[in-house]
């Protein structure tokens, strides 16, 4: 089991950092163009938050019930079996998320190159270097990876909040009035809302990635639901405030025709420096998403490796803790167990072996001599085993330690009667 070191703020940084991406810079214009009315844009974004909240409730329940590294891979495996889990895990760990990381790396390189004034051909190598740097930081440990995520997400939220404040201070509310020519009405309005809703849902995507770190969260039963629900609340609030800020600065017809709404707002507020401001803001937004994806994706590969369906080297970081944990458990319960071969088998095969042995001994005894008289048994005399293993030890002890005879007593009457006779004499005497 991985060490639990992530707390509420760390989880919120993952949810908000991954979910709030560059989509908020472009999507408001698409939604406004589809719906044609300012108030309907708020309806679309609010409905998106409600739907995301419902999805977060589902993920909170699943992550609390199965707090294991891997997220959706774990749930697919538990629901549909190892084969489906294998497909989901490999698609996420080796295809979807690496592709998303590569795309975010390219965008990061473009923004850094634009700020530095470097040629376009250099941008892709800057993106490769940025991804390599963040991967190296995360490979040094969970602490460094979450520190980068916390800083990047905090900077992102503060920058977006500053945009909202400055927009309300500089704007005059031009976008709150007016309707586009040809705006849908009647039944066509529901079709337009459905089309616009696709872009909105895409902007809310990403909150489920917090489930991948469920195994490392402190007190997952309390922390994980808060991570999902508070994260959705923060993202929804920011989206609504940003849309209100955009409408407060830009006329609605200009907002609806804008390809990059945030860029036009920045140009209106900051003038000639608007391009620089929006580039810095976009870089902060993308960096938080990039590091968040780099942080959570290896958890899927680790979960696959632990179940034997992924590269074995991917679980190398857990072996030391597993060995120590195994030594502690063995030393705590194995002192008396090593004296008896039956107990050794129960410990080796787990609780199921102990339960089978205990049932065999009891069935053989009952079939031969009937139910014996009850006699108090001292718990101190028994090895410290629980569950089925304890039953196996008790059955073997009352059968004079003859595990083979106890097992054959269930299938053959002779050996069973011998064990039952000894148990009856032991109970009566």
Descriptive terms for the model:
429 residues, mainly alpha, Amino acid/polyamine transporter I, 2 domains, globular
* Name of the top-level CATH class of the largest domain: Mainly Alpha
CATH fold topology of the largest domain: Amino acid/polyamine transporter I
SS element count, helices: 18
Task: Name the CATH architecture of the largest domain.
Answer: Up-down Bundle
By DSSP, the count of extended strands is 0
Report the mean per-residue pLDDT as an integer: 79
The CATH homologous superfamily of the largest domain: Amino acid/polyamine transporter I
Which sequence of SSEs, written as H and E, runs from N to C? HHHHHHHHHHHHHHHHHH
- Straight-line N-to-C gap: 48 Å
Work out the radius of gyration. 31 Å
In total, how many domains does the architecture comprise? Answer: 2
Would you tell me the structural class of the helices and strands?
mainly alpha
The major sheet is characterized as: none
Portion of residues in beta strands equals under 5%
Overall, the morphology is globular
User: Ranges with pLDDT <50 over ≥5 residues?
Assistant: 319-374, 376-421, 423-429
Helix content: over 70%
Identify the quaternary structure here: single chain
């Amino acid at each position: 089991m991985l060490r639990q070191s992530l707390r509420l703020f760390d989880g919120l940084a993952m949810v908000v950092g991954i979910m709030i991406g560059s989509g908020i810079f472009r999507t408001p214009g698409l939604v406004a163009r589809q719906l044609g009315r300012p108030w309907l844009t708020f309806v679309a974004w609010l409905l998106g938050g409600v739907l995301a909240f419902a999805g977060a409730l589902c993920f909170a329940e699943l992550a609390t019930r199965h707090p294991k590294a891997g997220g959706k891979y774990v749930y697919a495996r538990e629901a549909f079996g190892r084969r489906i889990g294998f497909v989901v895990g490999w698609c996420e760990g080796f295809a979807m998320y690496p592709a998303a990381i590569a795309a975010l790396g390219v965008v990061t390189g473009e923004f850094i190159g634009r700020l530095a004034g470097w040629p376009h051909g250099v941008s892709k190598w800057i993106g490769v270097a940025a991804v390599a740097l963040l991967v190296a930081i995360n490979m040094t440990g969970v602490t460094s990876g979450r520190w980068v995520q916390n800083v990047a997400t905090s900077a992102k939220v503060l920058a977006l909040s500053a945009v909202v404040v400055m927009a309300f201070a500089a704007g005059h509310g031009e976008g709150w009035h007016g309707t586009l020519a040809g705006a849908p009405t009647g039944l066509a309005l529901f079709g337009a809302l459905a089309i616009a809703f696709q872009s909105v849902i895409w902007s809310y995507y990403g909150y489920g990635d917090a489930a991948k770190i469920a195994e490392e969260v402190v007190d997952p039963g309390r922390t994980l639901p808060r991570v999902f629900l508070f994260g959705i609340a923060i993202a929804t609030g920011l989206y609504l405030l940003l849309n209100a800020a955009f409408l407060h600065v830009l006329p609605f017809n200009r907002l609806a025709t804008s390809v990059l709404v945030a860029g036009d707002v920045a140009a209106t507020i900051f003038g000639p420096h608007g391009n620089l401001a929006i580039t810095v803001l976009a870089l902060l937004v993308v960096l938080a998403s990039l590091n968040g994806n780099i942080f959570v994706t290896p958890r899927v590969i680790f979960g696959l490796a632990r179940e034997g369906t992924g590269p074995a080297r991917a679980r190398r970081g857990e072996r030391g803790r597993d060995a120590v944990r195994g030594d502690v458990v063995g030393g705590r319960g194995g002192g008396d167990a090593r004296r008896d071969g039956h107990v050794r088998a129960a410990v080796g095969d787990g609780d199921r072996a102990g339960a089978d042995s205990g049932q065999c001994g009891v069935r053989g005894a009952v079939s031969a001599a009937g139910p014996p008289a009850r006699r108090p048994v001292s718990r101190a005399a028994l090895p410290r085993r629980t569950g089925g293993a304890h039953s196996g030890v008790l059955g073997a002890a009352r059968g004079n330690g003859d595990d083979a005879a106890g097992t054959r007593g269930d299938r053959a009457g002779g050996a069973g009667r011998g064990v039952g006779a000894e148990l009856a004499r032991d109970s009566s005497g």
